[in-house]
Amino acid sequence: MKRLTLMIVLFFSTFQSATAKQGDYFLRPVFGLSQLSNTSGASEGLGQVDGDIMVNIDNGINAGLGFGYFYNDNFAVELFWEYRSNESQTTLPDATFYEEGNYASNLIIVNGHYYFDTTTNWQFYAGLGLGWVQEIDIDLEQGGTELSYTGSGDIAFQGFAGVDYTISKTLSVNVEARYTQVGSPKLEGENTIGMINSLDYSPSTLQLGLTWRF
Prior knowledge:
mainly beta, 13-stranded antiparallel beta sheet, 1 helix, elongated
């Protein structure tokens, strides 16, 4: 009986040390699927006439890396870098069609995470983020030629929710759904003339990540 009691105590003490997070720093690499809706905007100087530009967008990928700190077992803050790219096809106002291209971004965001209390190794969390667009660009490709339009400096917002599974004292795996809102960035020609305005950039993400605490 004493041996069984000792085993139970050791089990629960190990579990507590595996899930406690207060005071831990962490690194969190992620990789996932990026979804963007088709969008339209206003073009100036891209073709023979100015007007509405139509962009059809396919599913893409995202990848990122976060560095953060757990203030306690429930709340963490994270500095997060993210890259994403979605393939695209673009039609200009003069009906010129670019059958290839991509709509991509680099974002730097500060995220706040709230981890809900749990009695198992599964832990749900949610959070909000505020960040800066280091670069957002769209490439228009046709017949070996490429036009590139880029912008930076916009403000980004995001919300997310996920579930984290503790593997060991220092390692956990998480699945997360994320929605980001940049709005309508102004994209100027890069080594080419013209600009594109009012293209929506509101990606949704389903991603898988690892959290390494130290």
